[in-house]
């Protein structure tokens, strides 16, 4: 089979599911990964033939893509902060806005005087926990999820770690039950919990709804802030007095989410926007941290 024919036919097969530029880009990613060719190879080398064994695998990939499976599950990985993370249907495919949460977390950890004990609640693939462990050697990360299959995948992400990098500790626990038994004095509490309302399903694409785990996505319409409340109360117990928390939130519930942390006693709460200017994170800390910062400034 000619590569140019494969690209044309596959992109045509996917336009029913994706806008045309996205369909083409998915096919490019597939060819780059499976064949090691550049995205423009089918144009500059119109006579390029796909080896028979590769053609068979590519056709089965396109069948899965045409059934709506996200390309990341078909390939078995997703990029996050420049690293390949293994993904499978037991974990959410990491989203670009979550990379920003890691950026904010690293800015905190790199500030002189801030400690390096981090808690990642609702870790899924472990993309937040591992990114921090790898980008900030010496940091001790504890990561929690309720799903054992997700934790198995998270634990398996990386081996042969660079010197000084400590693998996160992955624990199975229920955030909504307050993570019983979890103890610590964490400098930074992070979380990207489920926050999509059931009623928002109508706005979502079928490939997300039918293939990504509902457990990772949805909260009931009548209790949309249940994870914010649970995280606020867990942080009260396990976050150090000079610590900080950052939680990813539903963009339509910015002030309500910040209100949950304020009501839980955090004097400083701040809504952070993502790169599309959507309310995307709440940062919270206590007055003790405030007082310490003011005395350092003074
Ligand atoms: C939005 S995903 C986030 C995954 C990952 N942190 C990321 O940013 O890609 C939410 C995660 O919360 C986990 N989860 C759902 N309910 C939970 C609960 N009650 N306790 C702990 N984890 C839970 C899901 O299994 C899922 O992995």
What does this structure look like?
- It is a single chain.
- With 298 residues, the chain is an alpha/beta fold.
- It has helices spanning 3-14, 20-35, 41-44, 52-66, 71-75, 96-110, 127-135, 148-155, 206-211, 214-217, 226-238, 254-263, 287-297, and strands spanning 77-80, 83-86, 117-121, 140-145, 169-172, 186-191, 196-197, 218-219, 239-248, 268-273, 279-285.
- The strands form three sheets. The chain has a seven-stranded mixed sheet, with helices on both faces.
- It is elongated and about 65 Å long.
- S-adenosylmethionine binds next to helix 7, strand 4 and helix 10.
- The site of S-adenosylmethionine (SAM) has 23 residues, from helix 7, strand 4 and helix 10.
CATH superfamily of the largest domain: Vaccinia Virus protein VP39
Q: Compute the gyration radius: what is it?
A: 21 Å
Which series of helices and strands comes N to C?
A: HHHHHEEHEHEHEEEHHEHEHEEH
Number of helices: 13
Characterize the largest beta sheet: strand count, sense, and whether it forms a barrel: 7 strands, mixed
Query: What amount of the residues lies in strands?
Result: 15-25%
How do you describe this structure in short?
The protein is α/β, with parallel strands linked by helices. It has 13 helices and 11 strands.
Overview features:
43% helix; 11 strands; 298 residues; binds S-adenosylmethionine; two-stranded antiparallel ribbon; 7-stranded mixed β-sheet
């Amino acid at each position: 089979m000619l590569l140019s024919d494969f690209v044309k036919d596959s992109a045509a097969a996917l336009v029913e599911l994706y806008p045309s530029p996205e369909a083409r880009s998915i096919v490019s990613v597939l060819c780059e990964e499976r064949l090691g060719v550049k995205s423009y190879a089918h144009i500059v080398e119109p006579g390029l033939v796909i080896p028979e064994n590769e053609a068979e695998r590519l056709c089965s990939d396109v069948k899965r893509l045409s059934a709506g499976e996200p390309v990341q599950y078909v390939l078995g990985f997703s990029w996050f902060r420049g690293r390949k993370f293994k993904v499978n249907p037991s974990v959410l495919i990491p989203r670009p806005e979550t990379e920003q949460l890691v950026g904010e977390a690293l800015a905190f950890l790199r500030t002189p005087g801030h400690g390096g004990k981090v808690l990642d609640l609702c870790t899924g693939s472990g993309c937040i926990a591992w990114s921090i462990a790898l980008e900030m050697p010496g940091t001790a990360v504890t990561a929690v999820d309720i799903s054992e299959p997700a934790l198995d995948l998270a634990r398996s992400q990386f081996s042969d770690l660079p010197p000084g990098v400590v693998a996160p500790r992955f624990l199975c626990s229920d955030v909504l039950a307050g993570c019983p038994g979890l103890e610590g004095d964490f400098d930074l509490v992070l979380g990207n919990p489920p926050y999509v309302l059931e009623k928002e399903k109508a706005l979502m694409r079928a490939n997300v709804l039918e293939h990504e785990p509902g457990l990772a996505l949805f909260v009931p319409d009548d209790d949309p802030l249940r994870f914010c409340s649970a995280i606020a109360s867990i942080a009260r117990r396990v976050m150090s007095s000079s610590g900080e928390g950052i939680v990813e939130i539903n963009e339509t519930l910015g002030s309500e989410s910040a209100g949950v942390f304020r009501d839980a006693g955090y004097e400083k709460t701040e809504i952070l926007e993502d790169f599309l200017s959507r309310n995307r994170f709440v940062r919270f800390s206590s007055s003790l941290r405030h007082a310490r910062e003011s005395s350092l400034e003074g």
